[in-house]
Design goal:
By secondary structure, this protein is mainly alpha-helical. The protein has helices at residues 2-39, 42-56, 65-80, 84-88, 93-107, 123-134, 143-170, 174-190, 196-208, 212-225, 231-242, 246-259, 264-276, 280-293, 298-310, 314-327, 332-355, 361-388, 393-406, 409-420. Helix 14 packs antiparallel against helix 15 and helix 15 packs antiparallel against helix 16. TPR repeats lie at residues 196-229, 298-331.
Length: 422
């Protein structure tokens, strides 16, 4: 019996010796860090890291808040205080700082055992940590450690992840950029704060890495936060169009219009949809509003003219085409459309005259006179269009017909030669 008792005691002593050794490593790590802070000797920093990594992998010390606080400090110093050559030799310092400090935060909680089993590599675990430390009633083993990490270390690391994400984005690695931006968001949210820059960067990185669901999530978050105002609705709608989801794109623009009814960009976005789908009445309403915001915009005025033209509101179309030319004298489309509108009206009266009974001489003369009037009106803007773009064949063809109608053989031959090369 005595032999067995002695053997059991021996086992107990050996186990206790191992635990003591690991605890000693935590203290050694602390001392190595102090030595590094004093002398900036990289070898001391690395000795400290070796010691603390060993302690973090042993059951006797891997649930100590102290282990992770001291380890976080070593890696944080490698990140922020080490000479350049030393810092380069510890390339994982940022990730390890975050790993150690966030573990310190969960093991430092005194009155919530469930958080100590949380897996901080999962969204659920991270959400649990955030909820626990955002509770003002939570008690900590060491409040000074908590304040140091939350007040100073976390913001520095969050900013470092932003910079790392930007570097990855510039190096054409949007997926890597997103991972860094999302880590920055997580760290910032631990402090119950919101970094709209990190969210915006995440949206861009997610879109560029074709993680569209994440991009939509971040654009929606920016809308919720009212970041960048109306612009984000446009970004989100553009992403929906890229995804081939026109319905959601239109819905997003219309939501934006409700939130920002006076925003010119959203008005034009919605206008584009109405124009593409042939909703002329709705398009006119948007154009009237857009022009009231930007009356010197020749493109908007011209667009309204085309809708009036299509709806046969010729007087309003004429006014808009002329206004567009006034705003932009070299506006080919405005000059051509005005001439074409007159030309088409002339053709309508010509056809009317041809369809009348030959005995209805008065009506024939009236229709013919109207046709001549509109042919004469067409000549000026068509010549203007030809001056702006001498190579446009449709303009030359229309002018030839105007000259034939006028009996102007000389100009007809000139225009024919330009058109046919003969």
């Amino acid at each position: 019996m005595k032999t067995k008792t002695i053997a059991l005691l021996g086992i107990a002593l050996i186990g206790g010796s191992t635990a003591f050794a690991q605890k000693s490593k935590v203290i050694s790590a602390f001392n190595y860090n102090k030595s590094f802070q004093r002398d900036k000797d990289c070898s001391e920093l690395k000795k400290g890291i070796t010691a603390i990594e060993s302690a973090a992998n042993e059951s006797s010390t891997n649930t100590w808040a102290k282990t992770y606080y001291y380890g976080g400090n070593l890696y944080f110093n490698a990140l922020t205080a080490a000479p350049e050559e030393c810092r380069a030799s510890i390339p994982n310092a940022l990730d390890k700082s975050m790993e150690f400090y966030t573990k310190m935060l969960k093991y430092n909680v005194e009155d919530n055992e469930s958080i100590k089993n949380a897996d901080l590599n999962t969204e659920a675990g991270r959400a649990m940590l955030k909820n626990v430390i955002s509770n003002k009633q939570t008690k900590y083993e060491d409040s000074d450690w908590h304040r140091d990490v939350m007040g100073y270390k976390i913001p520095v690391m969050a900013n470092a992840y932003i910079n790392k994400g930007v570097e990855a984005f510039q190096n054409k690695d949007p997926k890597g950029a997103l991972e860094n931006f999302e880590t920055s968001i997580y760290l910032t949210e631990l402090n119950n704060r919101i970094d709209t820059l990190a969210i915006y960067n995440s949206a861009l990185a997610a879109e560029n890495s074709q993680q569209y669901d994440k991009a939509l999530k971040y654009y929606s978050k920016l809308i919720e936060l009212n970041h960048e105002g109306a612009k984000v609705y446009g970004y989100k709608a553009a992403l929906y169009r890229k995804m081939g989801d026109t319905t959601s794109a239109v819905s997003t623009i219309q939501e934006g219009r409700k939130a920002y009814p006076e925003d010119k960009a959203l008005i034009i976005e919605e206008l584009d949809y109405y124009l593409q789908t042939g909703k002329s009445v709705e398009a006119l309403k948007n154009l009237d509003l857009a022009i009231s915001k930007d009356p010197e915009n020749s493109l908007l005025v011209f667009a309204r003219g085309t809708i009036h033209d299509k709806m046969e509101n010729f007087e309003k179309a004429e006014a808009d085409y002329k206004k567009a030319l006034e705003l932009k004298p070299d506006y080919f489309d405005a000059a051509y459309n005005l001439g074409a509108m007159y030309f088409n009206q002339a053709a309508v009266y010509n056809n009317k005259a041809n369809e009348l009974n030959y005995k209805e001489t008065t009506k024939i003369k009236e229709a013919t006179a109207k046709a001549q009037e509109y042919f004469a009106k067409a000549k000026g803007p068509l010549k203007k269009a030809h001056e702006i773009d001498p190579s446009d064949r449709a303009t030359m063809d229309s002018l030839m017909k105007v000259y034939i109608n006028e009996g102007d053989n000389e100009n007809y031959k000139i225009m024919k030669a330009k058109l046919t090369g003969k």
